[in-house]
């Protein structure tokens, strides 16, 4: 998804928001049939018959009533899922979100104009910030063309959440505060917050109606750095955002209670355009091995990133960059689109500023100093301890596979995303001797405020193909036929999910209707195959395509015995990040990636010989 930027756009960014179709409710019969099909690879014949009977009872009984209630809800809302999904998937969750929910990613700039280099951190940060501020201005003035899939218009609402957005912890449920406004809607905050050595600084990124230039931004960043050089580190209040959510909410309440000025500081951070983290770490990554940066953006210093912020831009001391974002307000696609814009701008200018060097007179950054006491210091110490204990358990690898990419796959008339997904299934099958329940993100943005649906790549056809690939006696023709059947099934399910005909969000809606009305829990949701196949957030493989640009991402696994797997596909390379928990004896991210490489080569060979 490339950025179409127009000086005089014919279509304003948010112009189609009111004409998008509502999110549909799939048929109950279709959803239950698709669910049964999805659990089959994980069941013996006896287990499957038990589950089939459970599903039949549900479909003929309480499921019918719940479905009618869901249809009634959909008649009064353009997106029946939106509020539920935000609450159930994000805001009501109580575990620490910074590592378990947030996503991040290394910036691809080191592949061309900005390799790791000492002594350029602030200079590069000022240029990167300037391009980011230009992107904010494009959204403010609605000069970013609406995204389309072919001729189908896609929802752009998530782009309102990239800037001036923050999650705020609550004792039982968090909230999201969004201060962004387009130019036609009114004034919008224009300050940024810079974090350095556990301290906070803020300055306005606009002066006399004009965005600060890189030399002006450099002056502000230099002042922040000079204030912190040789001085004791700050109190590190930001570490509290990495806490368990209820504990953080109570610590925040106490912080506000000891000094009302603390509330003003919190609001300044919350409403800021974005946070810039000046990080002393020097993760040395290359265009072939992104592991050091990928690990650092997920597990780095918690005192210099605000875990609840929609966008933390992380600037490392060796001139490399990354990001860390709260997942609640938007999908990774928003950040990928923004970062690709910056990447293309940097490429076009060779990473240099070619404009005026003049620095206008303007106020220096203001330090935001929290009032703290021993209890706050104790809360911060506890937060850092639990954070570091957890992060030390996370294994992350991120490599570029450079033997081939999208071009070679498409030349063989195969879908590149499906190709990677089936390669992953084969890699997992080879490593673990069984298939892994798998979640792949399906985009539902063709509907009003649509976000995602679950697409389950672990199909009977994928299972049969993996089994056939590892049979010594299987012929190339048998492997090829099994591969094509798996491809066709995957493509069919993905198209259905994107068109509002997936079943996972539908089942969630039925579950939540019952919960809201105090009805007894259906045995469909307590049936062992429900969780074994991934239901209820139990997918062994949590995967997402970051797109077909240079920008890639990284995130933690969904379950303790699982993997996080994120990838981007370029013409000549595939960059994939894989994460796992070290304390799980079952998993190893490095081995899974190496098995993936083997699978990719085998699949291309199979597809090539089939063409001959």
From TrEMBL:
GO terms for cellular component: peroxisome. It holds the Pfam family Carn_acyltransf. Residues 23-596 form the Choline/carnitine acyltransferase domain. Pathway: Lipid metabolism; fatty acid beta-oxidation. It catalyses: 4,8-dimethylnonanoyl-CoA + (R)-carnitine = O-4,8-dimethylnonanoyl-(R)-carnitine + CoA. GO terms for molecular function: carnitine O-octanoyltransferase activity. SUPFAM superfamilies: CoA-dependent acyltransferases (SSF52777). One of its GO terms (biological process) is fatty acid beta-oxidation. The keyword ATP-binding does not apply. The active site is at 327 (proton acceptor). Coiled coil: none annotated. The keyword Lipid metabolism applies. Keywords: Acyltransferase, Fatty acid metabolism, Lipid metabolism, Transferase, Transport. Belongs to the carnitine/choline acetyltransferase family. This is Peroxisomal carnitine O-octanoyltransferase isoform X2. It comes from Salmo salar (Atlantic salmon). The gene is LOC106606005.
């Amino acid at each position: 998804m490339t950025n179409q930027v127009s000086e005089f756009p014919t279509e304003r960014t948010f112009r189609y928001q009111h004409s998008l179709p509502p999110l549909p409710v799939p048929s109950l019969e279709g959803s239950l049939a698709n669910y049964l099909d999805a659990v089959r690879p994980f069941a013996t014949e006896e287990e499957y018959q038990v589950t089939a009977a459970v599903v039949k009872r549900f479909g003929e009984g309480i499921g019918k009533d719940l479905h009618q209630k869901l249809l009634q809800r959909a008649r009064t809302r353009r997106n029946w899922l939106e509020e539920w999904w935000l609450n159930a998937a994000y805001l009501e969750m109580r575990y620490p979100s910074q590592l378990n929910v947030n996503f991040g990613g290394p910036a691809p700039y080191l592949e061309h104009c900005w390799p790791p280099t000492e002594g350029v951190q602030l200079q590069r940060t000022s240029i990167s910030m300037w391009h980011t501020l230009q992107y904010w201005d494009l959204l403010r003035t609605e000069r970013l063309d609406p995204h389309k899939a072919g001729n189908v218009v896609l929802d752009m609402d998530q782009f309102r959440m990239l800037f001036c957005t923050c999650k705020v912890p609550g004792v039982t449920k968090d909230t999201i505060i969004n201060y962004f406004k387009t130019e036609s809607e009114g004034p919008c905050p224009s300050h940024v917050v810079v974090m350095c050595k556990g301290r906070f600084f803020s300055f306005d990124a606009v002066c006399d109606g004009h965005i600060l230039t890189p030399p002006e931004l450099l002056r502000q960043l230099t002042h922040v750095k000079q204030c912190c050089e040789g001085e004791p580190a700050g109190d590190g209040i930001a570490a509290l955002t990495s806490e368990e959510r209820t504990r953080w909410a109570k610590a925040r309440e106490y912080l506000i209670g000891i000094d009302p000025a603390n509330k003003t500081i919190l609001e300044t951070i919350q409403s800021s355009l974005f946070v810039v983290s000046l990080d002393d770490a020097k993760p040395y990554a290359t265009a072939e091995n992104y592991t050091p940066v990928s690990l650092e953006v997920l597990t780095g210093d918690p005192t210099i990133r605000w875990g609840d912020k929609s966008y933390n831009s992380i600037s490392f001391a060796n001139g490399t960059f990354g990001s860390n974002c709260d997942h609640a307000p938007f999908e990774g696609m928003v950040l990928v689109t923004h970062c690709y814009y910056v990447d293309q701008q940097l490429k076009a200018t060779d990473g240099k500023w070619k404009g005026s060097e003049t620095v206008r007179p303007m106020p220096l950054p203001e330090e935001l100093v929290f009032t703290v006491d021993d209890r706050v210091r104790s809360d911060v110490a506890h937060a850092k301890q639990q954070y570091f204990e957890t992060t030390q358990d996370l294994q992350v690898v991120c490599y570029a596979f450079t033997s081939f990419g999208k071009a070679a796959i498409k030349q063989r008339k195969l879908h590149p995303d499906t190709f990677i997904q089936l390669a992953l299934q084969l890699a997992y099958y080879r490593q673990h001797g069984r298939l892994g329940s798998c979640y792949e993100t399906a985009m539902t943005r063709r509907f009003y405020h649509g976000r995602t649906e679950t697409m389950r790549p672990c199909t009977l056809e994928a299972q049969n193909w993996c089994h056939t690939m590892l049979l010594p006696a299987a012929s190339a023709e048998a492997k090829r036929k099994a591969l094509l059947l798996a491809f066709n099934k995957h493509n069919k399910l993905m198209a259905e999910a994107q068109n509002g005909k997936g079943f996972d969000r539908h089942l969630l809606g039925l579950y939540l209707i019952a919960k809201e009305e105090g009805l007894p829990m259906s045995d469909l949701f307590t049936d062992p195959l429900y969780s074994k196949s991934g239901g209820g957030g139990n997918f062994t493989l949590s995967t997402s395509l970051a797109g077909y640009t240079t920008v890639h991402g990284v995130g933690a696994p969904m379950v303790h015995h699982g993997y996080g797997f994120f990838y981007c596909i370029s013409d000549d390379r595939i960059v994939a990040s894989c994460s796992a928990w070290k304390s799980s004896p079952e998993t190893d991210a490095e081995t899974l990636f190496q098995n993936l490489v083997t699978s990719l080569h085998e699949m291309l060979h199979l597809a090539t010989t089939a063409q001959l």
